[in-house]
Amino acid sequence: MTVVDDRPETAAPAPRRRPNRLLALLRNSWRQLTSMRTALILLFLLAIAAIPGSVLPQRGISPEKVNEYFVDHPDWAPRLDRIGAFEVFGSVWFSAIYLLLFTSLIGCITPRLRDHVRTLRSRPPAAPKRMARLPQHTVLPAPPGGAAAIAEALRKRRWRVEVRGDEVSAEKGYLKETGNLLFHTSLIAVLIGVALGSWYGWSGNRLLVAGADNAFCNTRQQYAEAKLGPQVSSADLPRFCLRLDDFEARFLASGQPEFFNATVTVDGPDEPTRSADFSVNSPLRLNDASVYLLGHGYAPVIRYTDRFGNSQISDEPFLTTGDMGLTSEGLAAFPDANVDPATGQRAPDQQMAFTGIYLPTAPEQAPFVRSQYPTERNPALNLVAYRGNLGLDAGIPGSVYQLDQRQVRAGKVKEVGTKLLRKGETWKLDDGTTVEFLGTERYVTLSIRHDPGSTMLLVSCGVLLVGLMGSLFGKRRRVFFRVVPADPGEGSPTSGSSLMEVGGLPRTDYPGFADEFTQLVAAVSGAERAGDGADSAERAGVREGAE
Q: Against a cut of 0.85, is the pTM above it?
């Protein structure tokens, strides 16, 4: 016998689709990155990452300070240099935090901006059915004119109003969210301004000695330290030249600086020839460049006469040691000294160099190692003479401010004497050659830079502060009014008239909302004309709180 299964066929369950784990991971990562919590963490990390740039010297601002740090900390400096501690704002790790913060802020702001625009275009919501449940609630006689009069009184106080029959809804305080969005949008603009300055900006440092022979032209080769953005080439630099004509400095009796002013002559294809003055807080503005005054010092003028009677003059700047008296140290090298005029041959082991300490105001008695005042009241130059092969012909880069100590340790350069020279004095060495201290020239340390994002940064920071003020002081709140008939019971003081039920709630933390609510109710009901808002509301029969 054949058994027939007449049960209804059931469809086989559809196979469950396995979620794409990669897409889920990317979606969750994006949500985490664009959360406000992540943005705040990245902003905090960016602030921490900027600390080394403020504590440690940076090559783009003060390369000589970086060199001093290497001399003072020979163990730590190479390690810090490997992680970009002397170029913090251009390092990979700082740029990574910067880009993540930029992306996070855009992801945070975009949906909030869309919701805020939608809120601004929407009408205030309808009044709740049970206003007694709101944080602020009261019932009092309705003003003449009913809902229309209430709406007009609210509009005069800059509330957004919506009338629905006998109900009036009003809202205020959009400035808080607007300010919040302005703040974060301005922060993005600040990041864009910094990026523009990094990509299309350039900067360089130059130590400029007074005199026509020391004029500086804006080429990369003439900078002591130059940094060009990735989108800038040497050919893009504006063409101009600077010559330092004069430098004026005034100091207080304690040695504290009071006034600095540099006078320069500007000329070149991109700049009209003119004389210009600028100081520390008032940079020189040129086309596509700004010249900032960073420091100043002295360049001793030394004349060396070799054994063949040939004279050479050095006016190399001496770098200040950082004390208040502008004590300076430097090097005057004469690699072409003692060249035989008959044969034109130079003896490499007869090259001369002088390391020295310059004291603008030297003490009356030894030791002569520190100046007592930054201006030249008693100038003196303490020199140490060296003779030998200075190592300059080897083509190995070295400092122009310090003698190569490797040559000294190898015995190729030897010390031949020391002497303290006053201005105009001459020192005769053991081989009959002479050194004369002729005086000094002033020099200034300049930072020349172009930052195309500076205007955007200035405007963005101003808008950022405005948005911050709105975010801090703006308070979002809503109030609702409903006009209802009065209870017709006998003995009721409002028998035959209408009542106004009022409710309000703050949308943000707002401790003063209760006082504002009381004043608003008194103003709308017309009771403020009789005196203080709160007392008048009581005389008008205000019943506050849940009934």
A: no
